[in-house]
Amino acid sequence: MPGIDIQLAIAKATPKKPILEESDGKVTDGNVHYCKGVTVVRCPRCGTILTRSHHYCWDCGQKLEWKEGK
Ligand SMILES: [Zn+2]
Known about the structure:
alpha+beta; 3-stranded antiparallel sheet; 23% strand; binds zinc ion
């Protein structure tokens, strides 16, 4: 269904705010361990752990919106 693919592409190209959560000390991503209190950034679409340097989710391609005043 091409129509669905187009809708998904538009949804991914529309920036979404990443999910920011505070690590409980048990969050790991590969060999990276997030200490308690550290802010973990997650993709709002698939939940993959990202960093603030990501403008797109490397897993699902969701564009991310960073509300940071200049
Ligand atoms: Zn994602």
